[in-house]
Amino acid sequence: MLYRARAVVLTDIDGSMIGYDGSRAGVREAVELLNALHIPVIPVTAKTLHEVSYLAVELGFAREGLIAVVEMGGALCATKGLLQLDDAVEVNGYKCSLLGGFIEDFDHLVEEALRECRALRLSKASLEEAEEILNLRGLEALLATRRMFLEVVWSNDRKCLEEASRKLSKLGLKTFLGKRFLHIGLHSGKREAVLRLLKALENTTLTKPTIVGIGDSDADIEFLELVDKPIIIPQDHMSPDIRLKRADYTIAPHPAPHGWVWAVKHITLNL
Question: Which residues of the chain have pLDDT under 50?
């Protein structure tokens, strides 16, 4: 798959490939187009490896093997034999380079920071709680709770999450507060993981492929700045929520999933 790739698509999932409401109309067909052109799709996501493995089958982006940056850079994982990874360990049947500590390593710090909050930690959530806050159902909601490196916290009290984020950042943890969730980890985020990925790709492909990046939020800026062709998916029909320091990025005309489908067509027409 990789050695003959003319392009590689690095993509965020939530809000970029799939709508925040879980909608994914047209995505599988767009993935099949990329597959036909031997353009690998590599998720760069806050989702767990369990979630990505499930979506890889449902949406068809692991036909020749899976490569993914999971839990917002907590690990870089690949199907065995697909990518040369330094210090790789086996996780759920994949080879993974671990780029930070496990949730259990900083669990006590999170508990202390959230002591005054009425908050829900996704790694400790029941199926019913996960379904309620994620707008997912059944297996997909359950897989989202199987977190190893990145804690995700939900609360109705925004100020409490902001204060917890400040406290944990001062303690050396990587935090990102989005519109609905606080993300907490011991790793450095998507940028470090994508740098590791790009280095591994150099040793795998015959010629340097064009690296396309697709994202929609502030958490994606750090990896979109690294790619050859960044594409921003707007979160609504008005304008994108993010801007890059560089000027050569493309803005899709629609939110996810239709914006992602448009981006695939844009990529294939401009190869």
Answer: none
